[in-house]
Specification:
9 helices, 187 residues, 77% helix, mainly alpha
Length: 187
């Protein structure tokens, strides 16, 4: 990616997250990035593609951020709780307005939109991760436990973004730990 394209994607990412995807036009992105609209269209082709790149980049950065948390965990239970630890730490710098994918889905609910598979794919990946981790603990209940953990995680993201109550992410982690203990999965 050229420096101008990188600046454009960085500007678009910040603006889309702060103001919303539909509220931000290519003129504003170009002005904020210090590039021409021609540069935007030469590199990305369309605003829709900028949105796709923004969401894909955000997802890649989240997965890279999460990886060392999972790698450092020593037990299956710790790996599950590491996801909650990672999201709490990620939230400090990246989730002031809630989950990027949830926010994007509020604006992009049409499955024909090219960004839609990025949004739903990220959530499907999270569900698969929780299910895989749950399978290490309770193979016969992996699907159910994975869905319950996903609901705790996603509910905490929404509550955090809406500032419904303080420490929603910490409370979700505590609830996940309780769930693992109560389900007989805890050691």
């Amino acid at each position: 990616m050229t420096p101008g394209a990188r600046r454009a994607l960085d500007a678009a990412s910040r603006l889309f997250y702060e103001r919303g995807i539909h509220a931000v036009g290519v003129d504003l992105i170009a002005a904020e990035a210090g590039v021409t609209k021609k540069t935007l269209y030469d590199r990305f082709g369309s605003k829709e593609q900028i949105v796709v790149e923004y969401l894909a980049d955000r997802d890649e950065r989240w997965r890279a951020f999460l990886a060392p948390y999972l790698a450092a965990a020593t037990t299956p239970e710790d790996r599950i709780l590491a996801v909650f630890d990672a999201v709490r730490d990620w939230a400090e710098d990246h989730l002031a307005k809630g989950c990027t994918m949830v926010n994007a889905h509020a604006e992009i609910s049409d499955p024909a939109h090219p960004a839609y598979p990025i949004i739903t794919g990220q959530k499907a990946w999270m569900l698969a991760l929780f299910t895989e981790l749950a399978g290490e603990i309770a193979p016969l209940r992996a699907a159910r436990l994975g869905r319950t953990l996903m609901l705790l995680h996603e509910g905490a993201l929404v509550a955090h973004g809406l500032r419904i109550f303080p420490a929603a992410l910490d409370e979700a982690r505590e609830d996940a730990a309780d769930l693992l203990r109560l389900s007989g999965a805890g050691r």
